Amino acid sequence: MAATRQWQLASRPVGEPTHDNFELVTVDRPEPGPGEVLVKTLYQSVDPYMRGRMRDAESYAEPWDVGDPMKASVVGEVLESEAETFEPGDIVTGDLLWAEHAVADADELQRVDPDLGPISTAVGVLGMPGVTAYWGLRDICDPAPGDTVFVSAAAGAVGSVVGQLAQLSGARVVGTAGSDAKVEWLTEDLGFDAAINYKTEDDLYGAVAEACPNGIDAYFDNVGGEITDAVWMQLNEFSRVAVCGQIALYNETEVPMGPRKLTTLIETRATVEGFLVSDYQNRWGDALRRLSQFIQQGDLEYRENVVEGFENAPDAFLGLFEGENIGKQLVKVGEREH
Amino acid sequence: MAATRQWQLASRPVGEPTHDNFELVTVDRPEPGPGEVLVKTLYQSVDPYMRGRMRDAESYAEPWDVGDPMKASVVGEVLESEAETFEPGDIVTGDLLWAEHAVADADELQRVDPDLGPISTAVGVLGMPGVTAYWGLRDICDPAPGDTVFVSAAAGAVGSVVGQLAQLSGARVVGTAGSDAKVEWLTEDLGFDAAINYKTEDDLYGAVAEACPNGIDAYFDNVGGEITDAVWMQLNEFSRVAVCGQIALYNETEVPMGPRKLTTLIETRATVEGFLVSDYQNRWGDALRRLSQFIQQGDLEYRENVVEGFENAPDAFLGLFEGENIGKQLVKVGEREH
Question: Residues in domain Enoyl reductase (ER) (chains A, B) (predicted)?
Answer without folding.
Answer: 17-331
